[in-house]
Amino acid sequence: MELAKKENQQLNIGYNRLCDCKPTHINCLNAKEWVKQQVAVWEFFYEKRDIREKDIHPAVFPISLPKKCIELFTHKGELVLDPFAGIGSTLLAARDLERNAVGFDLNEKYIDFTKKRLSQEPLNFCNTQQMAILDDALNISLYFETETIALAVTSPPYANMLNHQRLNKSIRGNLRENKYFKKVQQYSNNKRDLGTMKPQEYAEALGEIYKGILPLLKPKAHCVINVNDLWEDNRRYPTHSYIIEKLEKVGYELRNIIIWDKRKLVNKVGIYGWPSNYITFSTTFEYILDFWKP
Ligand SMILES: C[S@@+](CC[C@H](N)C(=O)[O-])C[C@H]1O[C@@H](n2cnc3c(N)ncnc32)[C@H](O)[C@@H]1O
What we know:
The strands form two sheets. Strands 1-9-10-6-5-2-3-4 form an eight-stranded mixed beta sheet, with helices on both faces. It is of the alpha/beta class. β3, α4 and β4 form a beta-alpha-beta unit. It has a single domain, classed as Rossmann fold, CATH 3.40.50.150. It is globular, with a radius of gyration of 19 Å. The chain contains six helices and ten strands. About 20% of the residues lie in helices and about 20% in strands. Bound molecules: S-adenosylmethionine. S-adenosylmethionine binds next to β3.
């Protein structure tokens, strides 16, 4: 795939550490804080600032998810990238933690909303910058110098998962017919929107995007992708394994697979499939894939 022909438009944004940690340390955590991070099943809860209104954005992760990744894989002052930034949860997390950050999204409505969120008062004193840019993630390499990004963390579209009428099968009984019932909640109709693509085409497109990002990462920088598998016509599409295959092919190395345990966020799980077809509902967990640049 060819990059759109654009002028080189490198951003003026900081990427150097503002802390005095030893150069070999991968984060600013002390040993006690590090131990807490070692469980490979993670739980997150929404806070007041999180946006859960699906008419604003249909698939937002809690700010605490990118926050944990930023704390684990970067130092104060370093640069974080979110290639599929949506309404900017990663940028808010970066600002809370004094990291510079840039997020990209194809959809102008989401970029505008992110800017609005960022214009609100920060939680702490802020000596770093966070920017939301309206562009295809395929163009990211035009914006950065090589080896400047310390972490890429995102939740991309889960292929064309949202591109159907919502039947709410994971919700039980009359709760199912909520205001989103039978609505299609795709991000856009843009052909470059990964949310319009079938799983194989999607995996190809994601591989191309991450190939472009790799040279921008510092050596051993981590790259975290939150994703879920798809079920369609009674078939599972293991999107997480397509992503592992594609990213390894373009030069990343898989380090950790973390399970995001969502059981406490999900109420009254539907009895889908009973009594003849056993399907483990993926609404109760998601994957967090952790790669690095070898
Ligand atoms: C799962 S959402 C991310 C939500 C985000 N984590 C948040 O909390 O707001 C995925 C986003 O990817 C965007 N997107 C899809 N294809 C894209 C592309 N080629 N380049 C940039 N963004 C894209 C969609 O517009 C959507 O907002």
